Structure formats: C-alpha cells, structure tokens
Amino acid sequence: MKTTPIHPFTRAQRRAAHAVDSRRPESSAALEPLWGAVVIRLATAGDRLSLDYLAQLDSAELPVGPILIGELRGRPAVAASLSDGRAIADPFLPTGDLLELVRLRARQLRATGSVPTGPASDPARASAPRVVTALSA
What we know:
The chain contains 3 helices and 4 strands; from the N terminus they run H-E-H-E-E-E-H. By secondary structure, the protein is of the alpha+beta class. It has a 4-stranded antiparallel β-sheet with strand order 1-2-3-4, with helices on both faces. The longest helix has 17 residues, at 96-112.
C-alpha cells in the first residue's frame, strides 16, 4: 500500500494544532475565575440533597433551622444556620471569605428580624426527594 506524503506545511499545522489542543483545559470551568459570581440565599426544601452532600464532604452534621447558602458557580460551597450559627463548607475550595459573607448576611437578617421561622423554613426537616429508577417503579 502506497502512502501519499503530507506536505511539510500541513504537517507543521497539525503539530501546532495538537500542541494547542494539549494545552487547552478540559472544560470551560477551568477558564472561569474561582471567585466569580457569588450568591447568598435562603435554603429551601429543594436544597436538601445538596446540603446533605456538602455536610458529607465536611464530615459534619447538617445545620438545623433556617439555613443560608453561599454558592460559587451555581453550586453550594458553604451553608450556615441562622439559628445557632453552625456552618458547613466544601473542604476542597477556599471558602473562608465566602463563609464570612454568609455570616455577615446572617447577622443582618437577625438584626432586622427577617429570619424565617417554622418547619417549612428548615431544610433539614424536609424529607429528601425520592429517586425513582426504572427498576423501582
């Protein structure tokens, strides 16, 4: 079988393209700064699984009472109880500054009396959503 030789210019282009591709990050998330948009919000019952996961990462129990969540890149990175101030955080991220922001917001909410009360405001009491698979249906 006879192979057709590749033009030297084309060979150089291929090498250059491969070198650029090998330096390219795996995902676009690597291009985003670590401290992009920060969101601080009250947790809802829909956050139960995310909070459970965060507590497992931190090897801690889920805080009780109304919870403030600090999000980075749309994912919970810290959570703090408005009742007792206990907090959990992702140990794989530098979350100290974000936790301070969440605690500052908690102090502001307590000072104005805007802390929600009642069982509906406690995501720890909400039952985790049931995951239905094809086998369990």
